[in-house]
Amino acid sequence: MITVDLTAAAELAREALAEYDLDPSAELALLKQRENFVFSLSDGGTDYVLRVHRRGYHTDDELGCELDFVRALHGEGVAVPDFVTARDGRGFCVVGREHAAGVHQVDLQHLIPNRGSFGDERTAVAGTADLDPADFAELGRLAAEVHRATEQSGYTMAVPRDDWDLDGLVGPQPAWGDPLRIEELQGEDREAVVAAIGRIREVLGAYGTPEHRFGPIHADLTPENVLRTADGLVLIDFDDFAAGWHLFDLATALYFFTPHPRYGEYRDALFAGYESVRPLDAADHEVFPAILLARGLTYLGWSADRRGEPTAEWHATTVLPNIVRLSRELVSV
User: Fold this and answer.
1) Given Cys at both, which of 53, 92, 207, 292 links 107, Cβ 3.0 to 4.6 Å?
2) Shared domain check, 154 and 100
3) What share of the chain is helix, strand, coil (3-state, %, to 5)?
4) How many Å from the N-terminal Cα to the C-terminal Cα in the chain?
5) Which pTM was predicted?
6) 40 shares its domain with 132
7) Sign, Cα dihedral of 111, 59, 143, 310
């Protein structure tokens, strides 16, 4: 397996700049490094954000499908990034054919001036995040605008991706890995989670996948993927976009806040904001606890394959008791 470090990522980024007719010597500043390397840069008085994608994370067709989705939302007036077209007319370029790191996809978007992200996962779980319920109402409206715009634009996924459906969440081979592989999950706690997975399959199976409940979603609406700007919230990073339940986006927005002492206020505000744009019915509210727990389980599955990484260890230790609590609550209903 080829490991790409910051130096290699910067070299790949500079190779890509030429594909957008930008100066390869422009100064690059690292903004984020997780699945992708994300840099900021300026050229000719314009500010940009450039992503060097993790090798093999998505095929070219899958990435093209993701960017088409963002463009469809942008065309409907949703607050999302504005991507720059490469020389060949595609929304990204491929570089590194002669680089030791190998072939990588790189895309470029206009930088969104912002005052930082909506929040962060760690203070949410710790219960120290100081957010106003009005923030969640605005976030709910944004999530609903994404789902409404998807329907209005007529967008359909041209390329299959790992769907956030029943099997993708809690099937024999979940999309993000098996949460039961976490070694710390033992005894009665493990039994509670196993029972909850069975309940999730039962509840979501009955809920079904009609178009008004299930379709293309962002799927990673965490606090760090929402920017605060002078014009309101902006949704970024569609890496995990695929077909899924619309409520999955709301579950992702709330999951890390479930241990927070103001969780009830935040949940009610999020749903109120969402329903001010796009109505929900009683079945949506009834099934939400199952989708919320299913979302949490995906992070455990993700962590099982990344033991030793700080974020994975945090999920497998600090956040794990919250999963057990939600599991017990679900099966007790």
Assistant:
1) 92
2) no
3) 50, 15, 40
4) 46
5) 0.93
6) no
7) negative
